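Renewal narrative, Specific Aim 1. Our central claim is that a sequence can be written position by position from structural information alone. The example that follows is taken directly from our test logs and has not been curated for this report. It begins with the structure tokens describing the chain, in the order in which they were read.
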């Protein structure tokens, strides 16, 4: 009897000492945040397989980086209500949890990581750094799950340019850098097909390949190990990264507002009001209905405004968006995927009024990419995707509108488009994070 009592006491003490993880207790949470968390998960579940598919390129001419066959998230360091939202939306608690996985990944959705190559800490920031370091070493390593399983993970090489989604807490964040492109969550809201997700991944890699030299001419962060950027490449939803993204968004919005002309502001307000009114009238209520040509033109103008509003390294990246389009098109062909996925993604985003991202083509990009498709005998297919409207018709109508379709021309001698160096996010979110330490790393 004494032994039984002793065992019970030991079990109780052990249970009390074990960390408690957040569970969904049914409380009311921020529904908008919950929706963004679910969009984030949906995006990760289609992007990670696409990243894995891109490895088949084995392009000898591109710079490379290491990737993992799965993506993760954690609610570590968020408020209690936010942590409940993460559990409800994706089954994610304070532990590192898998939210996206390639078909051949040993780790599956909602698996929770306990040990990385023999390293284990309750602090998820430290665990994420360890995961990034093992990934970048490029060699197979073991991961132990909280379920007790130990699995072998093998990083794989892809062309440089991480494709990542904005944190659910900062869904509008976007930045474009030769190391990583951060896409706003609205891209994931388009219900991406496999080929559209592959387009987004290859476009991001193409941006790095085609614009890397230009971007490095203005900014070249060299610190990666132990930086917030390193953690961000593994999970964008960590609190420190989300707070940095929020600050960068605010800075970019201020810069864009200062640069916009009154005519541009008025035009965009009128276009947004027209689209909103048409939605109220039910014009876009059915997926079978299409945007009118004027609505499509207005949306493309807004896409041009988004491109022109980018600052820092992102502004330099914007000067080669068209080259990234062509790079992605050609490589989708090489992978036997549908190279017109860029057009279909563009159209889906337009029809949903989601234009503050780089996947919507403005006039210049539409003209260049449709010319490439037409040269390959696919012009009629492009017109069908665009609802029967030929790209040249859109281009003709756009020439009568005052809004510029792209940022000012690039010049190595002209820093136009870059914000003041005295501003903390003058060179963009990604470049800034390269010099930001993860606060708790020092106690590792």
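The sequence written for that structure reads:
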């Amino acid at each position: 009897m004494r032994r039984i009592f002793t065992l019970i006491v030991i079990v109780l003490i052990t249970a009390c000492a074990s960390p408690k993880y957040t569970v969904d207790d049914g409380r009311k949470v921020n529904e908008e945040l919950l929706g963004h968390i679910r969009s984030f998960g949906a995006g990760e579940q289609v992007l990670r397989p696409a990243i894995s598919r891109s490895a088949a390129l084995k392009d000898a001419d591109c710079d490379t980086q290491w990737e993992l066959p799965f993506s993760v998230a954690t609610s570590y360091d968020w408020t209690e209500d936010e942590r409940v939202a993460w559990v409800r939306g994706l089954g994610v608690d304070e532990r590192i949890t898998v939210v996206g996985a390639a078909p051949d990944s040993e780790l599956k959705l909602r698996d929770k990581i306990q040990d990385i190559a023999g390293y284990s800490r309750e602090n998820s920031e430290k665990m994420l750094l360890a995961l990034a370091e093992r990934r970048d070493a490029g060699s197979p390593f073991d991961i132990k799950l909280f379920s007790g399983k130990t699995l072998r993970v093998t990083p794989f090489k892809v062309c440089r340019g991480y494709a990542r989604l904005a944190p659910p807490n900062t869904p509008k964040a976007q930045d474009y850098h030769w190391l990583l492109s951060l896409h706003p969550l609205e891209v994931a809201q388009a219900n991406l097909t496999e080929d559209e997700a592959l387009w987004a991944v290859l476009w991001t890699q193409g941006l790095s390949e085609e614009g890397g030299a230009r971007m490095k001419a203005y900014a070249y962060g060299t610190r990666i190990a132990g930086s917030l950027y390193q953690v961000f490449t593994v999970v964008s939803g960590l609190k420190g990264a989300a707070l940095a993204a929020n600050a960068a968004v605010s800075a970019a919005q201020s810069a864009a507002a200062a640069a916009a002309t009154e005519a541009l502001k008025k035009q965009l307000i009128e276009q947004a009001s027209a689209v909103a009114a048409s939605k109220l009238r039910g014009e876009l209520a059915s997926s079978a209905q299409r945007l009118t040509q004027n609505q499509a033109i207005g949306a493309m103008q807004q896409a041009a405004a988004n491109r022109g509003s980018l600052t820092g390294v992102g502004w330099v990246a914007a000067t080669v968006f068209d080259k990234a389009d062509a790079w992605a098109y050609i490589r989708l062909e090489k992978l036997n995927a549908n190279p017109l996925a860029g057009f279909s993604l563009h159209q889906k985003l337009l029809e949903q009024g989601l234009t503050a991202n780089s996947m919507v083509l403005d006039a210049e990009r539409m003209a260049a990419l449709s010319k490439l498709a037409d040269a390959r005998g696919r012009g009629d297919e492009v017109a069908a995707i665009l609802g029967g409207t030929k790209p040249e018709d859109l281009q003709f109508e756009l020439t009568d509108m005052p809004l510029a379709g792209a940022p000012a021309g690039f010049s190595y001698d002209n820093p136009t488009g870059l914000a003041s160096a005295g501003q903390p996010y003058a060179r963009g979110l990604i470049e800034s994070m390269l010099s930001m330490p993860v606060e708790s790393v020092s106690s590792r």
